[in-house]
Write a structure and sequence with these properties.
It comes from Apostasia shenzhenica. With about 450 residues, this protein is of the alpha+beta class. It has 12 helices and 19 strands. Helix 1 runs parallel beside helix 4.
Length: about 450
């Protein structure tokens, strides 16, 4: 939150966008083996990283409470009746730099009721929130990224084809917010604020920090940040051209059904990234004509269209995080997909024996952690079952090992996407989801 913002006016941002080298008109999937990774640094405006994820739900307190318990994310701030907000309840959870916001509408008040604009998110719409919950169940409404200038990012995006969702609004104290459509009913939210110069709220103006709460590090399970946010769409080519076109994001990775499918189903996937590769936005589409209906199509059917499929949360110790989460699974926490068979771990020493200790490899097998690597690093990952009523959104917990480099000032950091996206694990994930779907189908057939 203290990262310096490069100074750039709206005019300069537009100029930068107009000279972007990325041409998405000729986009065509080539598959993992033929894809050559490059970073042309074609962002149309400065994108500094993920800021928060907003869920729309029917009951913010109880939904936030379950996520807090399941993920070790303490309540950090709120805007609701207790703070003078008559329109919605919004509860913010935070673990290190990861921020989840849960928002639910109140009953409509007469038009004579007024409130200060700074006490709510200006883009919130009660009727839209109710429709969202009815259409999608629990789901992500907004993927918020921090930008240098929310107004400039909005106007540059719209000038390059983005569909506007909410025009730039000043929130006070130098904060600004704007939104454009991403896919389905999900918006890409731009948030900007000064790095210094005054005492800034820990989240957004109008939100009150939770006072007298325990030290958040005492409650944390070790989750540190949002690594990537994955969307499912009906047509990947159209979605990639649209998002890359207005952001300037470059293609970071891609997979086709031949790369990651099983004998029964598959998907195509593209990962888009900002210049610094700190904002990773993968998108998947279903593959048709397979033995089973694609899991992506199942998502689209139950979600009522495109939406966020899963959120990948990064931890510095996936084994510790997973032990904490699994301990709470029987008490209302999140459940996990079935572990792979023992044969999966037979070659684990060959895949990662130079990185993981014998004890770590043993724990990976005991806890059901998947292990993969690319030419740069190692990826440890595990997936929850869907976290809502519908077989839609779920959570991925990951740890990336390796790829440590230094910036111009000598500070060490990890390259984005280190270890890849689990290409070697896709088939195991697919099998787990297929078995989960088959269990649901069996119950429906006997109901």
């Amino acid at each position: 939150m203290g990262q310096a913002i490069p100074e750039e006016s709206e005019a300069a941002a537009k100029k930068n966008g107009d000279s972007a080298a990325g041409d998405v008109e000729d986009f065509k999937l080539v598959g993992y083996s033929k894809f050559l990774r490059a970073n042309p640094r074609t962002d149309r405006f400065p994108v500094l990283g993920f800021h928060h994820i907003e869920f729309w739900c029917g009951d913010a307190i109880n939904t936030a409470g379950r996520f807090s318990f399941a993920l070790g994310m303490p309540v950090a701030a709120r805007s609701d009746l207790s703070t003078g907000n008559l329109f919605h309840s919004s509860i913010l959870l935070r673990s290190s730099s990861l921020q989840f916001l849960f928002t639910a509408p109140y009953s409509d008040y007469p038009s004579s009721q007024t409130q200060s604009p700074k006490s709510l998110i200006p883009s919130f719409d009660s009727a839209a929130a109710r429709r969202f919950s009815a259409d999608h169940g629990l789901g992500v409404r907004a993927i918020a990224v921090r930008v240098a200038d929310a107004a400039a990012a909005f106007h540059v995006s719209v000038s390059h084809g983005a569909r506007p969702a909410f025009p730039p609004a000043e929130l006070g104290l130098g904060f600004a917010l704007s939104e454009v459509e991403l896919y389905g009913d999900v918006v890409l939210r731009y948030v900007s604020y000064p790095s210094s110069g005054c005492v800034l709220p820990s989240f957004l103006p109008g939100f009150e920090d939770v006072a007298d709460r325990p030290d958040p590090t005492d409650l944390s399970y070790g989750i540190q940040r949002l690594d990537h946010a994955v969307g499912n769409v009906a047509d990947l080519t159209t979605a990639v051209k649209y998002v890359a076109g207005f952001t300037g994001f470059h293609e970071f990775a891609e997979f086709t059904a031949e790369d990651v499918g099983t004998e029964e189903s598959g998907l195509n996937s593209v990962v888009l990234a900002n210049n610094e590769e700190t904002v990773l936005i993968p998108m998947n589409e279903p593959v048709h004509g397979t033995k089973r209906r694609s899991q992506i199509q199942t998502y689209l059917d139950h979600n009522g269209g495109a939406g966020v499929q899963h959120l990948a949360l990064s931890t510095g110790d996936v084994l510790r995080t997973l032990r904490e989460m699994r301990a709470r699974s029987p008490m209302g926490g999140f459940e996990f997909m079935p572990s792979p068979p023992p044969t999966y771990y037979a070659n684990l020493r060959r895949r990662a024996g130079d990185v993981l200790t014998e004890q770590q490899m043993k724990e990976c097998e005991e806890l059901g952690v998947l292990v993969d690597r690319d030419d740069q690093g190692v990826l440890l990952q595990i997936f929850t079952k869907p976290v809502g009523d519908r077989p839609t959104i779920f959570i991925e917990i990951i740890q990336r090992i390796g790829c440590m480099v230094k910036d111009e000032e000598g500070r060490e950091y990890q390259k984005g996407g280190c270890g890849g996206f689990g290409k070697g694990n896709f088939s195991e994930l697919f099998k787990s989801i297929e078995e989960y779907e088959k269990s649901l189908e069996a119950k429906l057939q006997t109901a």
